[in-house]
Amino acid sequence: MYSLDFVRPASLAEAVTALQAEDALPLGGGQTLIPALRQRLAMPGRVVALAALPELVGLRVEGGEIRIRGATPHARVAAEAPLPALARLAGGIGDPAVRHRGTIGGSLANNDPAACWPAAVLGLGGVVRVRGLAGPREIAADAWFRGLFDTDLRAGEIVTEVRLPLPLAAAYVRFRQPASRFALAGVFVARFAGGRVRVAVTGASASGVYRWTEAEQLLASDFSPGALAPLCVSAEGMLADVQAPADYRAHLVKVIACRAVAEAASGRTACG
């Protein structure tokens, strides 16, 4: 075992200051960092605990948005989110231990290619609010997700809040790997006023979460599963591993998208 400094700040301002050390890392729910520490994949000299900070926990509805603070556990979102699709997504992450420790901010900062939260934030067209030594920044979801395990988060910054517009209808459906409960493919569909539709896909692409813009264009004029019939998802660029080959994941994307649209159009919401 190697030694490190464990810092438990009393405020968000103290946390930001503590993270300015060259080898410091933030600790939210620990669902990614703790396994990385055990395997020596990460060896920081300082770990800064965020989960106990009241400024970073809680959610509310304000100005037509759901505002979720960065260290809010998945289980709390599952219990309190006013959007059923979002509540069921959060309630389907991992197992009870993961849901009560893992946080939305940690998931978005890590940007695992098979995680559920990136699909929700990108599918709803949310905004990620962060804070660093230079002050707060707001990053639109389309700019936040930059690739595999890569985001617009800068060194020393903390995810403080996620703002998600409330849609007219939404659903999230995934085909999950039974052991890890990560998505082999997952699709979040959201319909907004004026016919605007967003479709985000997770778990399938080798480059991480992405928007399926061809589906969005067809669904904007006909929000039904049948509207997706002309589309064919290419296996090029899809993940291929021991869990599923690329062509299987490509097939799943269309099948699951149709199910998500059907759920959202019926007024029900789902998380497979």
UniProtKB/TrEMBL annotation:
The keyword RNA-binding does not apply. The lineage of its organism: Bacteria, Pseudomonadati, Pseudomonadota, Alphaproteobacteria, Rhodobacterales. It comes from Albimonas pacifica. SMART domains: CO_deh_flav_C. The keyword Oxidoreductase applies. GO terms for molecular function: FAD binding; oxidoreductase activity. Keywords: FAD, Flavoprotein, Oxidoreductase. Gene3D superfamilies: 3.30.465.10, CO dehydrogenase flavoprotein, C-terminal domain, Uridine Diphospho-n-acetylenolpyruvylglucosamine Reductase, domain 2. InterPro entries: CO_DH_flav_C, CO_DH_flav_C_dom_sf, Diverse_Substr_Oxidored, FAD-bd_PCMH, FAD-bd_PCMH-like_sf, FAD-bd_PCMH_sub1, FAD-bd_PCMH_sub2, Mopterin_DH_FAD-bd. This is Carbon-monoxide dehydrogenase medium subunit. Residues 1-169 form the FAD-binding PCMH-type domain. It comes from the Bacteria. Signal peptide: none annotated.
